[in-house]
Design brief:
Rossmann fold; 7-stranded mixed beta sheet; globular
Length: about 290
């Protein structure tokens, strides 16, 4: 390939980067109430209208916050890849902005579980009656906090081995008014010691490495009460070569393994889970759902 061809590819990709940045900037004006130069704001409006004239219509403020967090974490983790390509894979970020922006999108998971439960009476009952929810890889705690808000009958336990994230989680929890409902622990999932305790467990598949996955799932199964539910979240692997490679890269850089839903289903069958199925709430995530007998 010639240098001119390379520059043409760079130009095409730069348009995508600048478009995402402009959309994020527009969301900041909407969500944060910023006051900026009228010329810039008019041009941002032009960009968003060019994407889709109705793109941001009827988007609520909390939804704006989630979308903005996704854009921010994409850029911040992308910059880390650019500046530190030699970094050993693993979720070892200490930058508070990266940790918070990654976590601020996680409350969506609670709403997706609600949508799943609306179609499954057994899971719906679990969310409404006294029990305990295990949030594996709780990070900065936003998923655990949202779970405590959405499911007042459940006690919430969030575990994570990464202390910089837990430090932020404790601060977030302190301002939530839910301190009595949420327990945060520095703990690895493969060292979980509870037996028959939790009625629902969330496991973020993209952050679970191939080296520990079998032990992790076995310990979670032991920690689930009989009849308890397990939900493993995954990033489905796209068929398009570039999308596939980027998804795998994001997962591996985060310390995980690019599991397919079929691989996870097989592991859950080996652990004698029942009612195993795949549920796709929204891109870019899929749930592998199962119940302990």
């Amino acid at each position: 390939m010639s240098f001119e061809s390379l520059m043409a590819v760079l130009q095409r990709l730069t348009v995508s980067v600048e478009t995402l940045a402009a959309l994020g900037a527009q969301l900041r004006f909407l969500h944060d109430g910023l006051d900026g130069d009228s010329r810039v704001r008019a041009l941002l409006n032009d960009v968003v209208r060019a994407i889709d004239p109705q793109l941001l219509e009827d988007i609520e403020q909390n939804q704006q916050a989630v979308a903005l967090a996704l854009i921010q974490t994409t850029f911040r983790q992308g910059l880390d890849l650019l500046e530190n390509p030699e970094r050993v894979p693993g979720w070892g970020y200490q930058d508070a902005d990266i940790l918070q922006s990654q976590g601020q999108a996680s409350p969506l998971i609670v709403h997706w579980i609600e949508a799943l439960a609306a179609q499954r009476p057994g899971l719906s009952k679990v969310l409404r009656r006294p029990g305990a929810f295990l949030d594996v890889g709780t990070g900065v705690g936003w998923l655990a906090i949202e779970a405590a808000r959405a499911w007042p009958a459940l006690r919430v336990v969030g575990i994570d081995p990464w202390e910089p994230a837990l430090t932020l989680a404790r601060k977030n929890l302190a301002h939530s008014g839910l301190v009595e409902r949420v327990e945060l622990r520095p703990q690895r999932v493969e060292r979980l010691e509870e037996t028959a305790t939790f009625t629902l467990a969330w496991v973020p598949g993209p952050f679970i490495s191939a080296e520990v996955v079998d032990r992790a799932l076995e310990h979670v199964r032991c920690a689930l009460a009989p009849g308890g539910w397990l939900i493993v979240g995954l990033y489905p692997l796209p068929s398009a070569p570039l999308d596939h490679a980027l998804t795998c890269l994001r997962i591996v850089r985060s310390g995980g393994h690019p599991w397919t839903s079929e691989e996870v289903e097989e592991k859950l069958r080996a652990l004698v889970f029942e009612q195993i199925e795949v549920y796709s709430p929204a891109p870019p995530i899929a749930f592998v759902v199962a119940q302990r007998p």
